[in-house]
Amino acid sequence: MKSYDVIVVGAGPAGLTAGANASFRGLSSLILEKYDFPGGLPVLLYPDKIIKDHPGFPVGVLGKELSRMLFMQAKNAGAEIRCGEEVLKIERKEGNHIEVKTTQDIYRARRVIICTGIFNVPRKIEALKDTNSPKIHYKVEHPEVFKDKRTIIVGGGDNAFDTAAQISDITKDITILVKDKYAKAKENTVKLVEGLGIKILYNTEITGVLNDEAGEIEKVETTNRETGEKNILSADELFVSIGFEPVRAFLQNNGFEMLDDGSLKVDKNLQTNIQGVFAAGDVIGEVRLIVTACAEGIIAAIHSFETIKKPYWLH
Ligand SMILES: Cc1cc2nc3c(=O)[nH]c(=O)nc-3n(C[C@H](O)[C@H](O)[C@H](O)COP(=O)(O)OP(=O)(O)OC[C@H]3O[C@@H](n4cnc5c(N)ncnc54)[C@H](O)[C@@H]3O)c2cc1C
Q1: Which end of the chain has fewer CB atoms within 10 angstroms, the N or the C?
Q2: 3-state DSSP: the chain helix, strand, coil percent, rounded to 5?
Q3: Cβ(47) – ligand 1 distance below 6 Å
């Protein structure tokens, strides 16, 4: 069985930074990623978005580029990174080590850092949950699918508004449906979108779909949540960005204490209820950003290092 000082679960921003910083401190580290590629959400969900709020990039940086740089940094630091290998079980064993079982192998670690993120599955609109149409998009992989299309964007957050701005010059027209009275997106993004002439309907949600003869979505029925008024809107393409379902099963099945919002409970050193198992990033985050995920990855790596090199029972 292969042994490492630190095994990191997940190769998103938190995991890549945790692995890099464990390696910088001379610990042998292995990062395990269930997808065939590293990078986490920035490469999975918004590879071509220009991230504007990450420190150190005055004109922004593409999601895929930032992920690539984090990956290269972890690799150059000496971390071993294995993709396409999902972690299934984490178990503390007699003799003060932790066993990590994956889809391919079983490893032994002195410390584990969980960086699985929490949002892997996009939340679906109730009225569309049984519809499996290619016209419904949960991420923008190829912006050209919206070219010359009447596009409806559902969601009031940054991603919905950023996406509207991103595809505004190629679509036929865009309508954003925001279920609340206000959008949660940053004020300057909302102003930018308004300035582009994009229609925003507040208090509005999709309550039904109308299909064409071929059984494809042609129109949607919307309802104003305040007045109850119904409307029919033509829709060539729909982009839905209303959040993500928390992935609880993996953590619960491994005996981790969770908070009500589905995140992992940790102490001030980012240690979970299982001794020697730390966590970082969205999986614990109150503020869920790349920079905080990276910072927590560093904190978890430092505490892993300190507890290996200076165990508390020697103090
Ligand atoms: C649409 C959208 C836009 C965003 N825009 C911004 C932005 O502009 N700026 C910003 O700072 N933040 C943004 N964020 C937030 C940012 O993406 C996250 O805060 C960040 O990715 C969290 O990093 P993480 O490493 O904790 O988790 P993730 O990026 O989710 O990475 C977790 C990784 O763990 C892997 N994994 C999960 N379970 C297992 C397992 N059992 N075994 C092995 N691997 C596993 C996953 O496949 C994934 O690769 C955005 C988020 C979304 C959804």
Answers
A1: C
A2: 30, 30, 40
A3: no
